[in-house]
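For the sake of transparency, this paper describes our internal protein records without simplification. The record that follows is passed on verbatim for readers who wish to inspect the format:
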Amino acid sequence: MQTISLKSNSPDDAIPLLRSAIDREKRIITESLRIAKEKIGRLSKVLGVDIDKLMKGDIEHTESNELRLIELEGEIELMKHLESELKELESVEICK
């Protein structure tokens, strides 16, 4: 783990602001993840596809399902990105 230094004229004021900002961002990401997971569940159910098979390329894209599969794949990628961001934020430690 690497250390990042920040300078402030009033660290006693800045530290709570930083903690609050990180907590707020975690809540936003968590809510976005919840929405993405719901959408993934809904789309995969409607399409009747297995997510693992889809991401391996084992699901045939047809004219009738192409747009929905692309939407589902996009939501899965978004979910992975959000999970990565949340994991990174959860590893942040503010030291004084």
